[in-house]
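hey m, so remember when u said the tokens were messed up on ur end? i reran from scratch. heres the input so u can diff it against urs
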Amino acid sequence: MELTKNISQTKIIKFLLAMILGSIALTISAKIKIPFYPVPMTMQTFVVLFLGVSLGYKIGLASVGLYLLEGIMGLPVFSNSPEKGVGLIYFTGPTMGYLIGFMTASFLASKINNTDSFFLILSKLIIATSTIYIFGLLWLGILIGWEKPIFALGAKPFLLAEIFKVVLLALITKQIIKIRNFI
């Protein structure tokens, strides 16, 4: 009985530690801007997908959920915060749909397995990333109006960077899964 209790406590501690580290990684990825064309890129979407692939859906979703909660509570974890605001006001601004899409993307990325071919992995990552943009564009359209060029404003400038990140992650995914399965 005592051994079972210790194993359970160890699992909870590992889960919490992985969740917190995932949230920290996501925060760091939001703050680092890499010069890219046509707009600077962060590695946020890469980390969102990485969390799903490397930690699985439970810890991946928990990490992203913690990150969102931290931001909603006013911690300056989001990209462009505190410069452009913090808390619920920032969260419900133009980026809310994208931030919510982080949850679906992380979940879908967790469904990649070691038997998937490179092209299947790439396809799954593209679908996962697409959910970020689907939610983002839907919210952006609701917020600023559908008569505006929503795709040109909310997706087109980021596509080249997304292709780069998805291909990069697809190239290393099998190694990530091997490490995950080993641990």
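this time it looks ok to me. The chain has one domain: 2-182. if urs says something different then somethings off w ur setup not the seq
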